[in-house]
Design brief:
The protein is of the alpha/beta class. The protein has eight helices and six strands; from the N terminus they run E-H-E-H-H-E-H-H-E-H-H-E-H-E.
């Protein structure tokens, strides 16, 4: 039997602390693909946003939107599929955060800009949505110890997780693999990684859910 082909353009999404960057790096190495990471550290408003969300939400969100759009446009103008591509975000993540963090009048302005940009970008062959319980996310955020994330609360992670779940419940733009990572560690466990990779290769169309029982 012929082994399923690996999608050439894979994008990985999920809330803070779920393991997007780790999985993207692993898959890019495994498939000898180009790794594309979102430019979080370059946002000059991010640390101030975590300290005072209301005051710095719009600046933070607009910077991210334009930065992510510019990066995606550069990919679209090159040979996107040569050698494969693994990206640790999709542009829609920006809208998820915007709807949580912005006021109604700010959302209206943001939406106008977003609609102008998103229609010009290529879509992945597969989106992998990683999810985990908010308590697990908080533990992972605390463990990695990034200074500007120290004020992230469990309530915020619950809100964020709910927003992600709502968005991907209605998602139908590309094939989608939903993976619950609460009970697995694909970074440390070769078995967990092997099972996850098998699921990635098996997705053909529509939405597929993968809810592993835990590391063995």
């Amino acid at each position: 039997m012929t082994e399923p082909k690996t999608p050439r353009y894979i994008a990985i999404e999920g809330p803070i602390g779920v393991g997007k960057s780790s999985l993207a790096k692993i898959l890019a190495q495994k498939y000898a693909s180009r790794l594309v990471k979102e430019e979080v550290a370059g946002n000059p408003f991010l640390e101030r946003f975590y300290e005072n969300p209301r005051k710095f939400a719009f600046q933070t969100q607009l910077f991210f939107l334009l930065s992510r759009y510019r990066q995606q446009r550069e990919l679209a103008q090159g040979d996107l599929f040569e050698g494969g591509l693994v990206c640790d975000y999709i542009l829609a993540k920006d809208k998820i955060f915007a709807l949580i963090n912005l006021e109604d009048d700010e959302i209206s302005l943001y939406e106008s800009i977003y609609k102008l940009l998103v229609s010009t970008l290529p879509k992945p062959d597969l989106v992998i949505y990683l999810q985990a319980r908010p308590e697990v996310l908080l533990s992972r955020v605390r463990k990695r110890g990034i200074a500007y994330e120290r004020n992230i609360s469990l309530d915020y992670l619950r809100t964020l997780s709910d927003a992600y779940n709502e968005y991907f419940f209605h998602y139908n733009e590309t094939p989608l693999l939903v993976v619950n990572t609460s009970e697995i560690d694909f970074v440390e466990s070769p078995r967990d990684l092997e099972h996850l990779v098998r699921e990635v290769k098996s997705v053909k169309r529509g939405t597929q859910h993968y809810i592993p029982l835990g590391s063995g």
